[in-house]
Amino acid sequence: MNMSYLKYFFFGYLAILWKINYVHNTSFSNLKWEYDFYSIGDLHGDKDAFIRILLNESIIDIENKVIRNNVLTVITGDVLDPTYDDIDIILFIKNYNESGKSLNSKIILLLGNHEVNNLCLKFKTPQSNIENYKYRNDMFRKGGTIYNYLIDSPFVVNVNNIIFSHAGVLPFYSTYGIDFINEEGKKEIINNCELLNQKLQNQQELCIACEYGPTLNRYYSYVTKNVFSESKVCSSLYKSLGLLKSNRMVIGHTVQRNKQVNSFCQDKLLLADTGISKWKNGVISYIQYFNDGSYK
Question: How does pLDDT run across 18-59, given as a tens digit for each residue?
């Protein structure tokens, strides 16, 4: 065997290892998407509303098959809400992403506090129906169908310099970067939240799925209170955006009183939870983004 062949074999082997590592360590810190691009707020178990949005944009047909090429949709968490269609939504997203590969169409589901609570086996199951929900809840135990799917979902994603998260990323967390947030958050919730429970017990400051992290904080929603609050919130927002090298942040988590997507901080903050779910008595809404930075 000559040296040139060995050299070819060696570098080929390294390339294979790199590809394997890349596939299993997907970074959500700087995704670029030049095609059709949407985001959807908190669905809270309303599959009908979800399907209506996808049908309205001709992303799926009436048989729920993916029919549109080159579409990225980001859902900003809180899909789950027991007693409704929440499990069906997760399974729909899973199947959508499998069948949409050939069309380059996919859905990124971010983790919200409802997803984290379920992975931690903290269920809001009606006491009168505990037995009826046992099968559902068991799917969130380690090794369960929904556990296995959600455990790889990100907390934060940056697409075209727009930050998406359920509750927003505060400057303290932004200093660590998106990849760290997602990796540390996964460590916290794996094994049904063993590490998260330890951090809560020890009141550890660096905690992704805790009160001030990107699934639970309400800080950015205070922008609506008064001029002083708006100035303070916007200052924090600009700092986070600078640290994350991005231009805008889109969050859900707090239902807007006017049931509209509201813009603040020179159009750099979008509060997008309009209470889509029929059980929240809100308005079905979503946002479409364009390559020139505009949206509607």
Answer: 333 433 457 999 999 999 999 999 999 999 999 999 999 999
Measure the N-to-C terminal CA separation of the chain; round to a whole number of Å.
Answer: 62
Least confident of 3-12, 80-89, 184-193, 212-221: 3-12
Tell me which H or E stretch contains 73: strand 71-75
CA angle 49, 82, 140 (to 5 degrees): 115
Q: In the CATH scheme, what architecture does the domain 30-289 have?
A: 4-Layer Sandwich (3.60)
Q: How far apart are CA 112 and CA 114, in angstroms?
A: 5
Q: Treating both helix axes as pointing N-terminal to C-terminal, what angle do 47-56 and 86-99 enclose, rounded to 10 degrees?
A: 30
Residue 68 has pLDDT above 70, yes or no: yes
Q: pTM (2 decimals)?
A: 0.89
Distances (CA, A) of 77 to 7, 88, 153, 192: 47, 15, 10, 18
Alpha helices in the chain (DSSP H): 3-24, 47-56, 86-99, 113-119, 134-138, 145-150, 171-174, 178-202, 227-243
- Alpha-carbon torsion, ordered 270, 186, 198, 117, to 10 deg: 60
Parse the chain into domains and list their residue ranges. 30-289
Q: Which amino acid is at 251?
A: I
C-alpha of 158 from chain center: 10
